[in-house]
């Protein structure tokens, strides 16, 4: 039986370095030309932490650690070329080795990765991140 479109689960990761976060400009049709966190689809049987580590490695080559759950948002993309609905799980992490440099491993999906000051984020942000920023959410650990 075809149930039609269903919501999917995405896991994205803030890789934080001081006051900076890692973002890349998307080249996929959904959110094309917007700045987004590394991340992607949760695979069957994966934990959120495993998914975050795998997606960050696949997309940037970076190894992350101290992976923690932050929050979850509900994102309906009806205005996209292919309408979609994602429950997006936001995780926080740091580089396992702070000297690591991000590589653009999937150049068909991303223009390139760079560190951005949280107080001076680039525009436009990918909708799930934009929604989070507008709500006042801050991904950094509180002292
Ligand atoms: P992949 O799995 O290709 O990294 O997916 P993505 O980066 O397009 O992320 C999908 C979920 C987003 C749209 C919240
Ligand atoms: Mg991705």
**Radius of gyration over C-alpha positions, nearest whole angstrom:** 15 Å
Helix count, per DSSP?
2
Mean pLDDT: 96
Structural class, from helix and strand content? Answer: mainly beta
Categorize the overall geometry: globular
List segments where confidence is low: pLDDT < 50 over at least 5 consecutive residues: none
**How many beta-strand elements?**
7
CATH fold description: Nucleoside Triphosphate Pyrophosphohydrolase
Largest sheet: 7 strands, mixed
Give the cofactors and ligands: isopentyl pyrophosphate, magnesium ion
Proper CATH architecture: Alpha-Beta Complex
Strand content: 35-45%
Give the helix proportion (percent range).
Answer: 10-25%
* Fourth-level CATH superfamily: Nucleoside Triphosphate Pyrophosphohydrolase
Name the CATH class: Alpha Beta
Give a brief outline of the structure.
With 143 residues, this protein is mainly beta.
Notes on the structure:
With 143 residues, the protein is mainly beta. It has a single domain (8-134), classed as Nucleoside Triphosphate Pyrophosphohydrolase (Alpha-Beta Complex). The chain contains two helices and seven strands, in the order E-E-E-E-H-E-E-E-H. It has helices spanning 48-60, 127-134, and strands spanning 8-17, 20-26, 35-36, 39-41, 64-77, 84-95, 110-117. Strands 1, 2, 3, 4, 5, 6 and 7 form a seven-stranded mixed β-sheet that branches. It is globular. 31% of the residues are buried. The mean pLDDT is 96.
């Amino acid at each position: 039986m075809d149930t039609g479109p269903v919501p999917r689960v995405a896991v994205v990761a803030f890789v934080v370095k001081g006051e900076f976060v890692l973002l890349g400009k998307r080249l996929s049709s959904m959110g094309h030309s917007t700045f987004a966190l590394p991340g992607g689809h949760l695979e069957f049987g994966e934990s959120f932490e495993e998914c975050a580590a795998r997606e960050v490695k696949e997309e940037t080559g970076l190894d992350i650690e101290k992976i923690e759950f932050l929050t979850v948002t509900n994102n309906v993309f009806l205005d996209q070329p292919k309408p979609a609905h994602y429950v997006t799980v936001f995780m926080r992490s740091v580089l396992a080795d702070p000297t690591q440099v991000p590589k653009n491993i999937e150049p068909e999906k991303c223009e390139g990765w760079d560190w951005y000051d949280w107080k001076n984020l680039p525009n436009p942000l990918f909708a799930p991140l934009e929604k989070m920023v507008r709500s006042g959410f801050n991904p950094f650990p509180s002292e």
